[in-house]
Design goal:
The protein contains seven helices and ten strands. The radius of gyration is 17 Å and the shape is globular. The strands form three sheets. Strands 6-7-10-8-9 form a five-stranded antiparallel beta sheet. The protein has a three-stranded parallel beta sheet with strand order 3-4-5, sandwiched between helices. By secondary structure, the chain is of the alpha/beta class.
Length: about 220
């Protein structure tokens, strides 16, 4: 939802990665930012309207990003998609950082404009292809923000580390970083950062991006 500079860039980036994309905006002229080669769907309307979301194909969606220019619209749309259409993978753009803690407690990851970039939304929206937030000079070790399946909520960091066979040194929780200890419980809305060898990123993402296996 939202076809401004960030929304259009996000849509084109997703399409370039091979995903099918639908874009919602109240202003038809905004779709011009997508260019003539955009093959996705464009829908005029309010992004928190259920009929508009249906037209955009929300029932077949794997993720939803609310990146319009209004905090209230973004959060309302994200909540409708999460709670009514039962889509777990949502992210909302937010202008007022003081509201971020409240929204993240609702289980909706937010990105404040002061640290905004389309690639941050991609890292939170896509379960694959995490970009490293740190890389050693040789390129052999990385620190990556990893998409974690909701099934890991309530599990300890120790169990997550054992399953992924790699350290998870810290979490971002309600906008603040915390050092993860083995007994730390992964909570809804947490962002996990894994340290691993370059060749193991996809393995780590596969394990943590899926529900934990039952003993």
């Amino acid at each position: 939802m939202g076809c401004g500079r960030v929304g259009s860039r996000l849509a084109l980036s997703l399409e370039k990665r091979g995903h099918s994309v639908a874009v919602i905006d109240v202003d038809v002229d905004a779709f011009r930012r997508l260019g003539p080669n955009f093959a996705g769907r464009t829908v005029k309307g309010v992004g928190f309207d259920r009929e508009v979301l249906e037209l955009a194909g929300v029932r077949e969606a794997d993720g939803f990003a609310a990146v319009s220019s209004g905090d209230n619209s973004n959060i309302l749309a994200a909540r409708v998609v999460r709670e009514f259409f039962d889509i777990e993978n949502v992210v909302a753009r937010i202008y007022d950082p003081d509201r971020a803690a409240v929204y993240e407690r609702l289980g909706i990851p937010t990105v404040a404009t002061v640290r905004w970039a389309a690639d941050k939304v991609l890292r939170r929206l896509l379960p694959e292809g995490s970009e490293p937030v740190w890389r050693d000079r040789s390129g052999s070790a990385l620190l990556v923000e990893v998409h974690v399946h909701p099934g890991w909520v309530g599990q300890t960091i120790e169990r997550m580390q054992e399953a992924a066979r790699t350290p998870i040194p810290f979490l971002l929780r309600v906008g603040a970083g915390i050092v993860a200890r083995p007994e730390t419980i992964f909570q809804e809305g947490d962002l996990a950062y894994a340290a691993c060898e370059t060749g193991r990123v996809s393995d780590v993402e596969t394990v943590l991006g899926a529900p934990p296996r039952k003993h």
